[in-house]
Specification:
globular; 27 strands; about 425 residues; 4-stranded antiparallel beta sheet; Neuraminidase
Amino acid sequence: MLNKRKTYVTQLFNALFIGALLLTGSATQAAACEDASTVSVHCGNAPSAAVDDQGRLWVAFVQDKHVYVSHSDDYGSQYSTPVKVNPVAEDAEFNGENRPKILVDNNEVYVSWTKKTSPRFTGEIRFSRSVDGGATFSEPRTINDDGLFTGHRFESLYQTESGLLYMTWIDKRDLEASIEAGDDYSGAAVYYAVSRDGGATFSENYRVANHSCECCRIAIAPRGPDNIAIMWRQIFGVTTRDHAIAVLTPEGEMTEMHRASYDEWQINACPHHGPTMIQGDNSDDYHMAWFSNGDAHQGIYYGRFSFADQQPHDVYQVDGGAGAGHPYLASKDGTLFLVWKGFNGMQTDVQLITSDDEGRNWSTPQVLASTVEGSDHPLIVESDSESDNELYLSWKTEESGYVFTPIRKQVTGEFSD
């Protein structure tokens, strides 16, 4: 009983603490953002973040048809003056599933985004880099190489242990070719390109698979020092939209492709719910989380895919509530962390569960943050700097602006000034 009471008190303290953090300064931020000339991470849209080896926080966001990058040396208390990545305005996507991405490697900053080219789901995959610590950025260039006015959207950016940059995205060039030939074609396709020189150049575009879902994020995790594993929503059969997993090489080869989830979601539309995935302690295992409204599973689920037997294991319903969605996974010091957002009829909560045994058992959910206004999808950002060994919640709300706050200290109730 005492342990249960202690857990309850700790969770209540954590909820009150993060609530205070969210409210602090929110009125000031809201007032500042009413000024159209104010450009900041609090006023922009769909921020993505990364922490470099020195503990500097970097954030990319979209505001007024520009992608901006800003940094903070005190984990979000203050930010540098935002730098424009694209000097010429363009219609950069900024929704939860389709947002700018940012990676940092020593003094180089890599940014990708999707440029909308019409209201009807067309776009281009864009990339720029800074080689002077974010002071300036190269002229943005388009990575898809087909030159077609069609869909190229929902890009993901990843750097391997060996320094290779991978870019994956959803692509409709094969749909266009099928229409031209008078053939039936369902969905879109997954494509990728690779840079071996820190983004100075990229390879030709390589196709992974036909018949992917048209509008969901792609999850990426390492598969050795050079290869990657990706997970995406795929069309199986006629209308079954579950998930696939594949291994990609920098030479443009797909060495494996398997079905990763068996939800039997029959839908001839895109749910805008992509998966999240990280590699497990066993290099053949990959932790996954996703949303489904299928015949077999409804809600947010966790599973562990094994390349050893090519099957998912320990499939577990995280949240079956109607308002639950958009999970995100991370791992730190042997513990798995899974966050997601859910609407309880009055407010949106970011919830967290943890596992200390590779996903076989999970903790009771606890609320990390809440808002009664509109909000973005929650993300987890890892810091491995010498001065910090923490996971952070990255979340934008209309109520409080951009929130970047430690997760593990909330779990344990250990806060510092």
